[in-house]
């Protein structure tokens, strides 16, 4: 974070209604600013209230918001009521999907091993009780199984190179009875298989240290066995929702026909309150909707909250799929806010799927240069709700801090880890960037929509920004 102190002074003056002399705004600021805030930037950011954002996070993160559960349903109702209280037309868009019930019990027991093991589960993993010999299957590629006999064994596999789902399928097709996947970097491993597959066998996860300890035990005990227990895991039909609030152009005669989507996902993973992932992005989206409600604009702005992102971008994929071709052509930008408030994460980046600049990254860098004295770093990520927009040919980018906080996808992702400074920074940057395009006197060149492209679904599951 490199926001200069003077930025807070300006924000405080704006928030308190104090008049700001034109000379102060018009002149370059010595502490690194290349451009001064103009009147449109001021309009875009002046009503943002970071305490409102923080309070939304507090409400949303009281319990895990797992897709398809009653807690997520309450979040949907909360968002709907908030958007309506601001005066918006609100659509609640239901969708069904093959959902997953987390196991009631997971256990890993290795006779003769002294160190304690704390296994994790993979979303969409299957139930089973397997006792079998252990084998080291490398990264779990087909070539790895050509050098070992996996028939009836439990394969120990390192994370990396391809999806968790493919690792489980490769083990299954090699005849293995179970899989243990351990992390390839420090920390616990939390993942998803992305969806149901009849080829799955029981699979558990371990941290890097525990996985390496297990392999050391196997080296010292060639006939080592283990028992994997997964009980209560179930896949079935579930319903989740998207919530979309629409700000129409304030003058129909000047309506450009363009649409900007500011989006975030509302759901969290099991056992995680999800204060940062992603109550933070959802709360910023709510506050942007409130603070921008009365801004004069020639562009439609949609404030969207998507369900079931953690299960494979299901809500955003449904939203984009339901759009007509005409609607897709109207959407010129998608700003995706995912994990934007952790005090323990790194610096803000704006990441497109292909790593290339587009209208979202360009507007963002222009706004952040004026607000913070230097542009937000660009990155590359195919791991959130901007992906379906990109696949449809719509310029899109993810706002996230990198590297991720150590509390990612854990029960420790709680309100006390949230930074108001980071929330304020992201909210101001997105508001200024969006309004740069949406304001009446906008003279920016219109960007051509890229051709449709395809991003492997595996990118979501195996390529978090770290």
Automatic annotation (TrEMBL):
Signal sequence segment: 1-26
Keywords associated with the record: Aminopeptidase, Hydrolase, Protease, Signal
InterPro entries membership: PA_dom_sf, PA_domain, Peptidase_M28, Peptidase_M28B
Keyword Cell inner membrane: no
Basic and acidic residues bias locations: 442-455
Domain Peptidase M28: 242-433
Record-linked PANTHER family: N-ACETYLATED-ALPHA-LINKED ACIDIC DIPEPTIDASE (PTHR10404), VACUOLAR PROTEIN SORTING-ASSOCIATED PROTEIN 70 (PTHR10404:SF46)
Protein name (Swiss-Prot/TrEMBL): Aminopeptidase
């Amino acid at each position: 974070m490199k926001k200069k102190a003077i930025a807070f002074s300006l924000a405080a003056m704006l928030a308190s209604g104090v008049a700001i002399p034109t000379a102060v705004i018009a002149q370059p600021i010595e502490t690194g600013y290349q451009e001064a805030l103009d009147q449109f930037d001021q309009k875009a950011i002046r009503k943002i209230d970071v305490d409102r954002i923080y309070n939304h996070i507090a409400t949303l993160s009281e319990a895990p918001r797992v897709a398809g559960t009653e807690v997520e349903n309450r979040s949907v109702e909360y968002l709907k009521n908030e958007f309506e209280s601001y005066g918006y037309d609100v659509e609640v868009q239901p969708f069904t999907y093959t959902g997953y019930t987390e196991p009631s019990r997971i256990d890993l027991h290795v006779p003769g091993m002294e160190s304690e093991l704390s296994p994790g589960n993979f979303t969409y993993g299957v139930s089973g009780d397997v006792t079998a010999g252990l084998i080291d299957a490398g990264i779990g590629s087909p070539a790895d199984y050509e050098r070992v006999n996996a028939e009836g064994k439990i394969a120990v596999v390192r994370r990396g190179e391809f999806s968790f789902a493919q690792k489980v399928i490769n083990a299954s097709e090699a005849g293995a009875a179970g899989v243990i996947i351990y992390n390839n970097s420090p920390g616990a491993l939390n993942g998803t298989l992305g969806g149901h597959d009849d080829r799955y066998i029981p699979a558990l996860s371990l941290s890097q240290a525990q996985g390496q300890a297990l392999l050391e035990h196997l080296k010292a005990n060639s006939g080592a066995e283990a028992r994997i227990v997964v009980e209560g895991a179930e896949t079935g039909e579930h319903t989740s929702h998207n919530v979309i609030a629409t700000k129409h152009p304030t003058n129909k005669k000047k309506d450009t026909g363009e649409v900007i989507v500011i989006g975030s996902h509302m759901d969290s993973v099991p056992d995680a309150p999800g204060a940062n992932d992603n109550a933070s992005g959802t709360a910023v989206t709510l506050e942007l909707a409130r603070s921008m409600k009365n801004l004069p604009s020639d562009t439609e702005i949609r404030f969207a909250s998507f369900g079931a992102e953690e299960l494979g971008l299901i809500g955003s994929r449904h939203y984009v799929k339901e759009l007509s071709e005409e609607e897709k052509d109207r959407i010129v930008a998608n700003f995706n806010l995912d994990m934007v408030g952790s005090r323990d994460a790194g610096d803000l980046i704006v990441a497109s799927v292909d790593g290339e600049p587009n209208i979202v990254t360009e507007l963002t860098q222009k706004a952040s240069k004026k607000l913070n004295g230097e542009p937000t770093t660009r990155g590359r990520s195919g791991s959130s709700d901007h992906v379906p927009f990109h696949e449809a040919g719509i310029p899109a980018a993810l706002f996230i801090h990198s590297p991720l906080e150590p509390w990612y996808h854990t029960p420790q992702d709680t309100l006390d880890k949230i930074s108001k400074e980071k929330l304020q920074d992201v909210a101001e940057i997105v508001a200024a960037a969006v309004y740069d395009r949406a304001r009446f006197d906008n003279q920016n060149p219109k960007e051509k929509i890229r051709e449709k492209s395809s991003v492997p679904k595996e990118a979501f599951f195996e390529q978090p920004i770290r």
